[in-house]
Design brief:
The structure is a homodimer of 150-residue chains.
Chain A: H1 3-10, H2 14-23, E1 30-31, E2 37-38, H3 41-55, H4 60-71, H5 77-111, H6 121-127
Helix pairs in contact in A: 1-3
Chain B binds a DNA duplex (30 and 30 nucleotides) through helix 2.
DNA sequence: CTTGACCTTCCCACGATTGGAACCCTCATC
DNA sequence: GATGAGGGTTCCAATCGTGGGAAGGTCAAG
């Protein structure tokens, strides 16, 4: 199976399959005489696993952990659960931070007339944050991979 | 005022101040005889504006828009409101996507024994997603800048 | 044999930020 | 006046995941 077919079957682009190979996330693919990579259904299975984990917001480093657990028949489900729970916590941190941003903006928008007059509370707030909005803390909220704008 | 003091006063790192200058987000700073950049309180004001907008999740390109509106006395507050609303919509898109991820993970975690046994529904789902989880759509959910893990 | 679709490797770009190297400037202290 | 610390300056590289493209080899159908 060529890389293009594996890409279509797994939902992982050919570009990314090659990238994952160079970074060591997946083992080097078999090669045919022509030099073409050759993928088995098992490989596609693994790629679908990766794709699904990406969709769930796991970072590649975490997928690396998940893959080794997946391959390890004597794994302990507690290990997997721990990774998933860490991921959930990361997601919740980010969701909270983003909600806060959205709420702040929303309250500013609510005050903004949105007409042709130049007075704008949004710009005013950007100039002089209303109450003690944190400047000092560089705002660390953990990390989780998210789909980018296409 | 040196760049270091401007950085401390604005919450924008010296590195980023120089970067913003090269990208044209901010005008070139005045130079002293020594070659040192020299910042006025007004400059610090602008940097705080940028910092605040970053904290609110605006992309640099959007801050560019906001800055021109900020500097433009004849700006229409409707323009500012439109940008803010777009930003809110982006945030909500991302929040929704992340909630979905977290919920899916949560339901998987709830099914996982989390003990020493190898059976793990989380890995099982990554292998074969339960119901028709969308593979085709490459998951596009808009974009908003977020603080990274430091 | 040609054509077009695929594959290969390699390099570049994005966005925002950080880090480092190599070098110059300023100030306080000895 | 010399010295050292701690600024400043420039330039270059790396991050992470992904896409784009060039230059060239392979394959199957017409």
């Amino acid at each position: 199976m060529n890389i293009g077919q594996a890409a279509k079957a797994s939902g992982v682009s050919a570009k990314m399959i090659r990238y994952y190979e160079t970074t060591g996330l997946i083992p080097k693919a078999e090669r045919r005489d022509s030099g073409y990579r050759d993928y088995s259904p098992a490989d596609v299975h693994m790629l679908r696993f990766i794709r699904r984990a990406r969709d769930l917001g796991f970072a590649v480093s975490e997928i690396d952990e998940l893959l080794s657990l997946w391959r390890d028949r004597s794994r302990q489900s507690a290990d997997v659960k721990r990774i998933a729970e860490r991921q959930i916590a990361d997601l919740h941190n980010r969701i909270t931070a983003m909600k806060q941003m959205a709420d702040t903006l929303q309250s500013l928008v609510a005050c903004c007339a949105g007409d042709e007059r130049p007075e704008c509370p949004i710009l005013a707030d950007l100039e002089e944050p209303a109450d003690g909005t944190e400047l000092p803390p560089p705002a660390s909220v953990g990390f989780a991979r998210l789909p980018n704008r296409q």
